[in-house]
Amino acid sequence: GGNSVLGTNDPASSCQSNLEVIRMGAAWRAVRAANRTLRNVVLAVVDSGVDMTHPDLVNQFWRNPRDGSIGHNFLDDSSNVNDENGHGTHCAGIAGAQANNGIGIAGVANVQLMILKFMGSDGKGPLSGALRALDYAVSNGAAVSSHSYGSTFRSPIFEAAIANADAVGHVVVAAAGNDGLNLDQTPTYPCSFARTIPSMLCVAASTSATTSALSVATFSNVGSAVNIAAPGVNIISTYLSGSYARLSGTSMSTPHIAGVAALLATLGLGGQRITDSITRGRTADLSNSLGASSPGELDALNAVNIGLGQPTSPPRPSSAPTRVPGIVSVPFERSPVHRTPIVVSTSDGCELAGSVWTPQTFAPGAENVFVILVHPWGKLGGSHANMSSLARTLSERDDFQVYFSKGFNCITFDTRGVGRSTGSSTFTGHDEVKDVVAMANYGIENLVTKGGKAQFVLLGSSAGAAIAGSAAPLIDNCIALICIGYTLGHMARVMFGSHIPKLEKFTGPKLFIMGTKDCWTSVSQLVSFVEKLGSSAEYRLVDGAGHFELENSPERAGQIVDWAADFITKAIYHQRKEGEGL
């Protein structure tokens, strides 16, 4: 196990393409090659607390010399910083999980983590708690603090506190937020304070593949206050009960930056010297859907080299759109696809935000075929943004090789508790099955052309494939199921195993797509499962791909869409033939 690019032996670091993108392994090697005496640095994580016994974190905690605590709980004014939400544990792991200990993942920096809890199990907390946490961090010697939260309320007192921290060389790193907004028009705090505070960093989320950042994530806020971006989609990190999970958001991007800032502090840098090293070392500006001022992507190696006074290496290629086979690269507003926002009610009263993607020209006979794309459920950080590139490309297809020649209707949506959808996300994803059924019912009631009959294809990715598999036998006229990275490994079955018997009840055609370097399921496990399902199932393997790459990387997505399109069109063809009695 491990990751040869990063030089780590942690088994799940093979899934950490986010660290490969920012050249973290090379940055670590540059620090070692400098042969400097490194300072002991404390990084404060201001969040919902931490899993205090997580094996990948337990050796990384700072200890208060007065009472031995690892931080403070500002909700009940105690030293119990145990995490009841998971958000804080995830952020702490990104920044500072123990590397090269043979378990789990690798964190960005080998520093001491000060845990400051001001948010409860609901992920919310009082501004007064955040303010007191920052004061505690500065007073107790933390060089950097990571703030993955935000509010529209501008507090002059909080702004003054950050300015005071800046004055003593403390670096505040804050998340830009996940509303898809331009912060120049709709500020979010504390992030927007970065416009006037020299050493503060406001962090956007980037989508990233294995070699380069592609763009600012569609959910990420942008604006002139946002001065850096870091990977924020499908980031694997530590979670509750000693487990690991992948989450998406600027909350995940922020500890990447905070970790690099702390690494620079170990070299003796402080305050604005840290910020300048990070911002001067960033790549060219990333594109964003709002046309707003865009930040560059974090390049940890360049940041370290600048901090060491060494020359930087050439930046990675620009993120400007390039033509990749199977991917349409024109800006969306000029795309031959119409995207319509929808709101759908579930059987138990949740309101789900989604989109219908309608092609300019339908494949013959496919006007009433709807591909419902299912992302990993909310507890695992999924959102419809995970699936949008696949939806757009399936709708835009103009080079199908089998039977038909144009695109399909696609439906993407945020499951309950995600984005603007209401309700509460669940830990197992079983309630989210109702969300998929609700989308199918919406299609039947609102999208079918006159005299037609709806047919559905469910396409799920990772944990979303488990949801799709459970939903398929519940949906009338579900003609095919496509699972990208279905989770079959022994560890994955703890969370996802109860979905498997439900998938097995679906008798229609099933396609499983997986990377040969999937960290949750081995190729032999997939092959055995498909053979068990019999002639209704088949599989395709993406050589060299890890679990989290498949729906987010253009280099991978082109092949996936080709396979999916072929499979869907065959399913439609055979349904038509059966209907004709042939």
Describe it for me?
With 582 residues, the protein is an alpha/beta fold. The chain folds into two domains: 4-308, 3-Layer(aba) Sandwich (Rossmann fold); 337-580, Rossmann fold (3-Layer(aba) Sandwich). 29% of the residues lie in helices and 18% in strands. The protein contains 15 helices and 18 strands. The strands form three sheets. Strands 1, 2, 3, 4, 5, 6, 7 and 8 form an eight-stranded mixed β-sheet that branches. An eight-stranded mixed β-sheet has the order 11-12-14-13-15-16-17-18, with helices on both faces. It is globular, with a radius of gyration of 24 Å. The termini are far apart. The model is unreliable at 209-213, 315-336 and 398-405 (pLDDT under 50).
CATH topology of the largest domain: Rossmann fold
Q: Mind summarizing the main beta sheet?
A: 8 strands, mixed
How many helix segments?
Answer: 15
Q: Which spans have pLDDT < 50 for at least 5 consecutive residues?
A: 209-213, 315-336, 398-405
What is the element layout, followed by pairings?
Blueprint: H1 17-21, H2 24-34, E1 42-47, E2 71-73, H3 87-96, E3 112-117, H4 127-139, E4 144-147, H5 156-167, E5 171-175, E6 201-208, E7 213-216, E8 228-231, E9 235-238, E10 244-247, H6 250-266, H7 271-280, H8 300-308, E11 337-345, E12 351-359, E13 369-374, H9 388-396, E14 409-413, H10 430-447, E15 455-461, H11 463-471, E16 478-484, H12 492-496, H13 500-504, E17 510-515, H14 523-533, E18 537-542, H15 554-579
Parallel strand pairs: 1-3, 1-4, 2-3, 4-5, 5-6, 6-8, 13-14, 13-15, 15-16, 16-17, 17-18
Antiparallel strand pairs: 6-7, 9-10, 11-12, 12-14
Helix pairs in contact: 2-8, 3-6, 4-5, 6-7, 7-8, 9-15, 10-11
